[in-house]
């Protein structure tokens, strides 16, 4: 189906451009970008490739003209072989091929350079945008831009730019030569071309609508495939695949209907126009007209032959032009997506260093912080204010969706606050450089990212210069040394893509070892025990205790037992702090926390036996 490379698709108006990407939103479609802008960094090299390619086209046309000369000489003096003309033909043929090869070489070099420049630019940009942007876009979608969309541009530069020059130079020069040789035959050839173009343009009239319908149908198929595959474990257990397969089937049927409609609407005229634009009709007509003119004694045979030779190339020279239209449409969506990432707002990082050691200021403070995830969304946090004293532990609890994770993520500036400020040691975090901020705070989130490297390397990310003894000490404190030692290659065991060879609890302990090595004064834990199974929960809690010792801690707590001893508990409810205090005070208050605690305890005592008693089921979701 794809029409990449240099092959010319038959009846290609019937083939819609490829856009198999569900990420293409309406805004992107509106902003279909021209590819030329993005090629600027390698513009010089591309122009050079185009110039060589134009040279190759001129050599090709020179071959035709010289062949005409050969025939003329042979007609004038049949017993004398016109060797110089033959030599000219041979030289120009070699020249055409060498120039063509050179053009494609240059275009490929430019494509490789561009690929590298774009990937570096995109990666650099992503390092400067807010983490919130990365999270909202989705790592998969961004990786696709860096990989697939950049690749699409590579293909465009490598294969299309030389064709571009040929597509313009050949028809124009051919036409000039034809007119110079014989205006009447030139007009015949032009008439055939005009007819072919007319039909093709008619065939493409509904193209834009069809492309839209086609893209929508493809997106539905993509989404249905992803759903079908991702939901496979659930599907197998519950509906033996019938329901989600039904959705997939419906998407495929819709896709087929669009394709058939397209084919019916554009298929025949498109194929017909390709037939008209192929060399045969032009040659037949020019041959007939030439015969007639020769019979009238009004056309020299050598000229006639020259026209025939040029006409063969003329129809063919139109092919690249049509192919290019298709290629540019195809690459425009990739360009739009690349430009969108390149235009993503950068985090306005301050230049300041670490906060001044103001002993009177709290380690961390939220001062009237209001934040919403988007201009049209209700605030996730309303005027949140609290202080965290140095060396103390603050726990964030509350029902699901109350805003706890949002608080944790605002500290490393996943997003910036809409109103109010967040300060470390009295300094607004927006005034600190990214490095200075990160030197103060370590984070352990629900799902810790492990690189496809060894366990030791993953721990060492915390402090690249750490010695082996320090890595092992951190792993010991994080209760990870035991299971690492038991692995066949110990600390040199590769953890696989995103740590798939390790359990959730093991991955978390490696992340804790990493944070221990970082040794930063403030620690933010977001549901760090969420993946703990009963077997390693105790170890995980021991690891966290080691990490928390002597540090200022903010923790989003899943298991309320882990926060009984917290110095301060902030109870969130619908984006506000509903209650605050220590465990005993809050339980005594008999409010939201007391209810959450009660439910938590009930849940802890819940057993299969208890499940038979309806009273034992908790009725409110615990954070
Ligand atoms: N990326 C996002 N885009 C838009 N809204 C979001 C986003 N993340 C969270 N929200 C919304 O912000 C509110 C607070 O969410 P948050 O994740 O902070 O709650 P939470 O208390 O941590 O919940 P949970 O305990 O279930 O993780 C919720 O209403 C949620 O729907």
TrEMBL record:
Chain ranges of the ABC transporter domain: 364-599
GO cellular component: plasma membrane
Chief localisation class: membrane
Membrane topology: Multi-pass membrane protein
Keywords: ATP-binding, Cell membrane, Membrane, Nucleotide-binding, Transmembrane, Transmembrane helix, Transport
Pfam families to which the protein is assigned, alphabetical: ABC_membrane, ABC_tran
GO molecular function: ABC-type transporter activity; ATP binding; ATP hydrolysis activity
Location(s) in or outside the cell: Cell membrane
SUPFAM superfamilies: ABC transporter transmembrane region, P-loop containing nucleoside triphosphate hydrolases
Annotated ranges, domain ABC transmembrane type-1: 48-330
Record field: transmembrane: 48-71, 83-103, 163-180, 186-203, 272-292
Region span, Disordered: 1-32
Protein name: ABC transporter ATP-binding protein
């Amino acid at each position: 189906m794809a029409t990449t490379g240099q092959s010319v698709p038959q009846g290609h108006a019937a083939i819609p451009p490829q856009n198999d990407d569900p990420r293409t939103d309406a805004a992107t479609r509106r902003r279909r970008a021209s590819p030329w802008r993005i090629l600027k960094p390698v513009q010089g090299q591309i122009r050079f490739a185009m110039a060589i390619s134009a040279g190759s086209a001129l050599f090709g046309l020179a071959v035709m003209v010289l062949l005409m000369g050969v025939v003329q000489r042979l007609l004038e003096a049949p017993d004398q072989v016109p060797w110089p003309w033959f030599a000219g033909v041979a030289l120009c043929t070699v020249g055409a091929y060498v120039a063509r090869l050179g053009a494609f070489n240059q275009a490929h070099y430019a494509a490789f350079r561009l690929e590298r420049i774009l990937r570096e630019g995109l990666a650099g940009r992503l390092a400067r945008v807010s983490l919130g942007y990365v999270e909202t876009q989705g790592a998969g979608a961004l990786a696709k831009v860096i990989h697939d969309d950049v690749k699409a541009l590579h293909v465009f530069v490598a294969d299309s730019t030389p064709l571009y020059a040929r597509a313009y130079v050949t028809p124009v020069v051919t036409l000039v030569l034809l007119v110079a040789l014989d205006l009447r035959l030139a007009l015949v050839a032009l008439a055939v071309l005009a007819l072919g173009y007319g039909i093709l343009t008619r065939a493409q009239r509904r193209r834009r609508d069809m492309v839209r319908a086609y893209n929508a149908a493809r997106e539905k198929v993509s989404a249905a495939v992803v759903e079908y595959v991702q939901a496979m474990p659930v599907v197998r257990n519950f509906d033996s695949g019938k329901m989600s397969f039904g959705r997939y089937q419906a998407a495929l049927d819709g896709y087929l209907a669009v394709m058939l409609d397209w084919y019916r609407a554009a298929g025949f005229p498109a194929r017909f126009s390709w037939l008209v634009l192929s060399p045969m009709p032009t040659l037949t007509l020019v041959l007939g007209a030439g015969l007639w003119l020769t019979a009238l004694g009004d056309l020299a045979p050598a000229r006639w032959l020259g026209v025939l030779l040029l006409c063969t190339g003329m129809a063919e020279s139109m092919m690249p032009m049509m192919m290019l239209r298709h290629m540019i449409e195809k690459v425009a969506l990739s360009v739009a997506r690349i430009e969108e990432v390149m235009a993503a707002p950068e985090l306005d990082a301050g230049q300041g260093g670490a906060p001044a050691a103001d002993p009177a200021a709290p380690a961390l403070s939220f001062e009237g912080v209001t934040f919403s995830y988007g201009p049209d969304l209700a605030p996730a946090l309303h005027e949140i204010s609290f202080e965290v004293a140095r060396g103390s532990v603050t726990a964030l609890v509350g029902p699901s969706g109350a805003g706890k994770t949002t608080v944790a993520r605002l500290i490393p500036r996943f997003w910036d606050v809409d109103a109010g400020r967040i300060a470390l040691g009295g300094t607004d975090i927006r005034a600190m450089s990214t490095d200075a901020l990160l030197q103060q705070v370590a984070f352990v989130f629900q799902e810790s990212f492990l690189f496809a490297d060894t366990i030791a390397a993953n721990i060492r990310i915390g402090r690249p210069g750490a010695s082996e003894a320090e890595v092992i000490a951190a792993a010991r404190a994080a209760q990870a040394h035991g299971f690492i030692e038991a692995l066949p290659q110990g600390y040199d065991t590769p953890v696989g893509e995103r740590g798939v060879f390790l359990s959730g609890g093991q991955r978390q302990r490696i992340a804790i070892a990493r944070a221990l090595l970082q040794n930063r004064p403030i620690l933010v834990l977001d549901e760090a025990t969420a993946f703990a199974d009963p077997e390693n929960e105790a170890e995980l809690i021991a690891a966290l205790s080691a990490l928390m010792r002597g540090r200022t801690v903010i923790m989003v707590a899943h298991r309320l037992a882990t926060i009984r001893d917290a110095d301060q508990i902030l109870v969130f409810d619908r984006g506000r702090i509903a209650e605050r205090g220590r465990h005993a005070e809050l339980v005594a208050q008999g409010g939201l926390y007391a209810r959450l605690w009660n439910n938590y305890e009930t849940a802890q005592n819940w057993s299969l036996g208890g499940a038979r008693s309806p009273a034992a089921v908790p009725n409110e979701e615990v954070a």
